[in-house]
Specification:
about 25% helix, binds adenosine-5'-triphosphate, Ribosomal Protein L25, Chain P, alpha/beta, about 550 residues, binds magnesium ion, elongated, Rossmann fold, 27 strands
Length: about 550
């Protein structure tokens, strides 16, 4: 676990879902409430799911109800145990606990099957032998009604016989489907005799080879809600058109309880794509280093990158819950991350692109220990020692041979402060045959230990540095947005908008000795550079850091 503060942020936000829940409790419609988070285990969770998790678990917590984690595992062709495991780990990491309330739609396969037979017996479902193409042609369009299938008026006996044989495995994939018999002329396409079951000879992660017919989402979801006595079934707006069907099944089946569906707007963020299908393609095509690549908007990726769970909870709370779709500025997300890290992250020094500095008047072989503050905003975080000697590294970009005006850092003749150390003056830049600066020769003022001159003279720049000998080599992975534009795919091709420079690897970085045992996934601030955490690939023999986020905004303005 990378996030020590796992207690969910108190949710002060009000929204229409919370208003409905509160009213239902006040009126006595419900004595207590039950919500659920229903992921399909066909990929890793992303930051959009975090919104749904925080809403469902958050509401249950605030109103002293219960939130179930229910896997919507009705499509074994795409679902895997790896995803079931990762989803549980991610929900826990976000700070939520389903207790005993872990369920699977597949727990209800037998009951759902019996309810399908119930509909058949009541003349409300039928087996259709049409091909996929025929089904789709009969469905009609938004402007044209659908047409009835030639199989629509089979007898209940014939339907029951065929459905039982479907279950028994007598037919190949796609040969037949079970449909609800509702209304082919309905203005709502979901009510045009929707498919309830399809034949799928496919091994299921939980039920193995027991089934070769599987219920689809619409037939499984509401009934699962009812079996779990869910009171408020909260989902995203794209399910609004499914609601009449959700209710039709509940109306026509002897279900034990009556849940209600409510829809809210899904989370969209600039420079980000939250589509599982697209994220799956990135992983399968090796365009990223797996689901937990720190560039991915997955919870596993964000965790590996060093984003605290509390920052995500906070971000999602600030976005709020609305009824209209919109896109949140990425800066709002960044702000939440920086705000948390600024408070919690210890300060350290790391030099991303080192340039050697030799302090000519510093005694050869001498090393002193300087005291550095761990967090200026949190005195209880204490101090640490950093060795200082005749040779140190500073950042290449902190030196310019011919600086423009207002460049106050190192250049020949200028004096700067080394953080927690001394004032040094640059005397000379040493170059290689190619004319590149390879080393700076400087002098220090021994009277300025701690960074202040006794005569009160001012220097404008304070630079971070590390000791040459005692610092540790490190690889630093700097992440830039995965897309080059805030609205990826707006021109019709998501892949064309992938940022070829989303990952920059700095192989020669140096970090201060205190980072030898940096905790994996827990961000620290490298002074003046941003927030960084040890990557899962890191080990004491080879330190690897991810940049969680820079100190300042670096997005191109759209
Ligand atoms: P798909 O259905 O294509 O697999 P999905 O992202 O909807 O993708 P689910 O596993 O079905 O995946 O999602 C679980 C829950 O998370 C659903 O209730 C869904 O509404 C919610 N959810 C998914 N994406 C978002 C999002 N961007 N913002 C808020 N909630 C989301
Ligand atoms: Mg979905």
């Amino acid at each position: 676990m990378t996030d020590k503060d796992t207690a969910p942020a108190p949710d002060v936000g009000r929204d229409f879902i919370r208003d409905i829940v509160e009213a239902d409790l006040a009126s006595g419609k419900h004595k207590s409430i039950v919500t659920r988070f229903p992921p399909e285990p066909n990929g890793y969770l992303h930051i959009g799911h975090a919104k749904s998790i925080c809403l469902n678990f958050g509401v249950a917590e605030e109103f002293k109800g219960q939130c179930n984690l229910r896997f919507d595992d009705t499509n074994p062709a795409k679902e895997e145990q790896e995803f079931i495991d990762s989803i549980q780990a991610d929900v826990r990491w976000l700070g939520f606990d389903w207790g005993k309330n872990l369920f699977y739609a597949s727990d209800y396969f037998e009951q759902l099957y019996l309810w399908a037979e119930h509909l058949i017996q009541n003349g409300k479902a039928y087996v259709d032998d049409s091909t996929a193409a025929e089904l789709s042609a009969l469905r009609g369009t938004l402007t044209e009604p659908g047409k009835e299938s030639p199989y629509r008026n089979r007898s209940a006996e014939e339907n029951l016989d065929l459905f039982r044989r479907m279950r028994a495995g007598e037919f190949p994939n796609g040969a037949r489907v079970l449909r609800a018999k509702i209304d082919m002329t309905s203005g709502n396409i979901n009510l045009r005799d929707p498919v309830m079951y399809r034949i799928l000879h496919e091994h299921h992660p939980r039920t193995g080879d027991k089934w070769c017919i599987y219920p689809n989402y619409d037939f499984a979801h509401g009934q699962s809600d009812s079996l779990e006595h869910v009171t408020h079934s909260v989902c995203t707006l794209e399910f609004e058109d499914h609601k009449p069907l959700y209710e039709w099944f509940l109306d026509n089946l002897p279900v034990p309880a009556r849940p209600r569906q409510y829809e809210f707007a899904r989370l969209n963020i600039g420079y980000t794509v939250l589509s599982k299908r697209f994220l799956t393609t990135l992983v399968k095509d090796n365009r990223v280093d797996g689901w937990d690549d720190p560039r991915m908007p997955t919870l596993a990726g964000l965790r590996r990158r060093g984003v605290p769970a509390a920052a995500l909870r906070d971000f999602v709370r600030k976005v709020g819950v609305a009824r209209a779709n919109s896109t949140v500025d990425i800066q709002m997300y960044d702000h939440a991350v920086r705000e948390h890290l600024n408070k919690s992250a210890p300060r350290r020094m790391g030099v991303l692109r080192p340039l050697k500095v030799v302090i000519e008047n510093y005694p050869e072989g001498q090393v002193e220990e300087l005291e550095a503050i761990n967090n200026p905003d949190d005195p209880s975080a204490g101090t640490r020692k950093i060795p200082f000697g005749r040779e140190i590294y500073v950042e290449q970009e902190d030196f310019m041979e011919n600086p423009p005006k207002k460049f106050y850092r190192l250049s020949p003749g200028t004096e700067v402060r080394l953080r927690y150390a001394y004032l040094i003056t640059c005397r000379e830049a040493v170059k290689n045959a190619a004319g590149e600066v390879t080393e700076l020769r400087c002098t220090y003022d021994p009277e300025t230990r701690g960074g202040n001159a006794p005569d009160g003279r001012k220097v404008k720049a304070t630079l971070h540095w590390v000791p040459a000998e005692q610092s540790l080599p490190a690889e630093i992975r700097v992440y830039n947005p995965l897309f080059t534009r805030p609205d990826p795919g707006a021109n019709g091709d998501l892949f064309a908008d992938i940022n070829p420079e989303s990952l920059e690897v700095l192989k020669d970085a140096r970090v201060e000795p205190a980072l030898a045992d940096a905790e994996i996934g827990v961000a620290v601030q490298f002074e003046r550079q941003g927030y960084f955490c040890a990557d899962t690939d890191s080990n004491p023999g080879k330190l690897i850091f991810n940049r969680t986020i820079g100190l300042r905004d670096s997005y191109a303005k759209a």
